[in-house]
Amino acid sequence: MPGGKAEISASTPDGQRLLVTEADNGSISVVDIADLNNIHVLRTISFHELSAKAEVTSVTVSKDGKYGLAVLRTGDTDTEASQGLLAVVDLTTYKTVKTYELGIGPDSIALSPDGLHAVIAIEDEEINKAADEIDYANAKRPGSIMIVSFEGGNVLEGEITNLPVSLDHVAGVSYPHDPQPEYVAISPDSKTAAITLQENNAVAIVDLQTKQITSIFALGTTSHLADLKDDGVVKFTEKLTARYEPDGIAFSADGKYLLTANEGDLGKNEFDDGVKAGGRNIAVWDLQGKRLYESENLIDEATAQVGLYPDDRSPNKGSEVENLTVATIKGKTYAAVASERADAILFFDLADPVNPAYLGLIPTAGESPEGIHRVHGRDLFVSADENKDARDHSLASFHMT
After folding, report:
1. In what residue span(s) does the Choice-of-anchor I domain sit (predicted)?
2. 3-class DSSP string for the chain
3. List of the chain residues with pLDDT < 50
4. Are β-strands 321-329 and 281-286 bridged in parallel, bridged antiparallel, or unpaired?
5. CA 328/CA 331 separation, integer angstroms
6. Number of CB atoms found within 10 A of residue 80's CB
7. Per-residue confidence (pLDDT) for residue 4, from 0 to 100
């Protein structure tokens, strides 16, 4: 990739092009993936004309494939409350043809399958850039959830609804005064959105027909065996108790369940209560917040078996389960799960969505996979790999056979 952190990708409906965010470069790249032996960048689109401090956090593609929708932060910090933007890019001319003003510090975007609603997580994490840290206890700007509704699916004519998020009456959440929506998934029938609030260890459910938050539930804690020491020896013999703190989220193929990638975000001793951050696993929930399955330490164990487990991360989130996606290919439904610190994609069979069956893993071409996406109409998953070297960012593709 030309530059910037490759974090999120989205494909056009014909499966021939891929849009990839390059966060710190303030741009997206449009990549030709028609021939996997000849993948090449068609155009890199910069948004610095919209904001000198543009940072692209997420991207999707309109249902008709004519437009890319890119979410931009514009330099917000703990002291600078700059509004985010949704930029609509014509994928023929590669020009920005429409912008919508968003809340402060937007993160993820998802477009409903019917193309009528874009749901955006307004995180507003209030980061102190100089110290590279967030003072959660003293945060003053709560995040929200925004819906941009497109009449007839026309992304050039959108109506914005902002949904304030209140955690005041949600028992068991972290930092209830500062809700921080993180990642968005939308049900296959386009009626419901689910949004992780990672730092708060919660999930919000939104009715897209009424445009209302219908429920928010805390996720609680997990307990299982783990490696908690950076000692050069990988052994899963200690008890981990941790808040799930999911990043990525996806609906099951039937829309009845939610799958979460329980990465963790807060510091490992944030509350000095012995409870760590990050479940180090995936979990399945019903839409009322009842946990139906979790993989316990399966992902750490699986990456260790092939020499990919990062022992230096044992005290802090382990293999770090960043994101996931659910897709049905040739009549079979799979979950593809990105492990950021083990540099791998793990695959699960979802024939029984409340009892995923582990199939195996594939190392990524680059380091630190952030986003995992199933290419429309193809038996193909793509991971966007952030990489530790800021000059080197990559995509990796995986065929399902």
Report:
1. 4-266
2. CCCCCEEEEEECCCCCEEEEEEHHHCEEEEEECCCCCCCEEEEEEECCCCCCCCEEEEEEECCCCCEEEEEEECCCCCCCCCEEEEEEEECCCCCEEEEEEEEECEEEEEECCCCCEEEEEECCCCEECCCCEECHHHCCCCCEEEEEEEHHHCCCCEEEEEEECCCCCCCCCCCCCCCCCCEEEECCCCCEEEEEECCCCEEEEEECCCCEEEEEEECCEEEEEECCCCCCCCCCCEEEEEECCCCCEEECCCCCEEEEEECCCCCCCCCCCCCEECCCEEEEEECCCCEEEECCCHHHHHHHHCCCCCHHHCCCCCCCEEEEEEEEECCEEEEEEEECCCCEEEEEECCCCCCCEEEEEEECCCCCEEEEEECCCCCEEEEEECCCCCCCCEEEEEECC
3. 390-392
4. unpaired
5. 6
6. 12
7. 56
CA atoms within 13 A on the CB side of 331: 0
What pLDDT does residue 130 have?
82
The predicted-structure confidence for 137-176, as pLDDT tens digits, reads as follows 899 999 999 999 999 999 999 999 999 999 999 999 999 9
CB atoms within 10 A of CB 95: 10
The owner of tokens 């193309």 is 115
CA distances from 382 to 122, 179, 374, 378, 397 (A): 25, 31, 6, 11, 4
